[in-house]
Design a protein that fits this description.
Layout (H helix, E strand, L loop, with lengths): L1 H38 L3 H24 E4 L6 E2 L3 H6 L6 E5 L6 E8 L2
Antiparallel strand pairs: 1-2, 1-4, 3-4
Helix pairs in contact: 1-2
Length: about 110
């Protein structure tokens, strides 16, 4: 029970860090977009996007590298293929992916990898 709490807290801490990075970047993007709309000057928006896109890719990679999924059928932990993972339906704590062990597609709990 204690380990599960710790896992959940560590996952939440990781998500909080990611949000702390993504929100300011998104706010700067929106400010640059508003500037473009109001002033007609698109150059700051392009400059911000040159920063925001790599940050987004880095956050997605950071997240994907640190989580695995628990199959509700065979109870193994696994990492789905990148394409399936990226496009899968998901909630904040689960993702509908295919288990690499038993081959069943279901909602799998997300946990930090070891």
């Amino acid at each position: 029970m204690q380990n599960e709490k710790s896992q959940e807290q560590q996952l939440q801490n990781m998500l909080n860090i990611m949000t702390g990075i993504a929100l300011p970047v998104g706010a700067i993007e929106m400010a640059a977009l508003v500037h473009w709309i109001r002033k007609g000057d698109w150059k700051p928006f392009v400059g911000v996007e040159l920063l925001a896109i790599p940050v987004a890719f880095a956050l997605v990679r950071f997240y994907r590298d640190r989580v695995v999924y628990l199959c509700p059928h065979c109870h193994t932990s696994f990492k789905p293929e990148a394409r399936e993972w990226f496009f899968a339906a998901h909630t904040p704590t689960t993702r509908k992916v295919t288990c690499t062990s038993c081959g069943k597609t279901d909602w799998c709990a997300e946990v930090l990898s070891d």
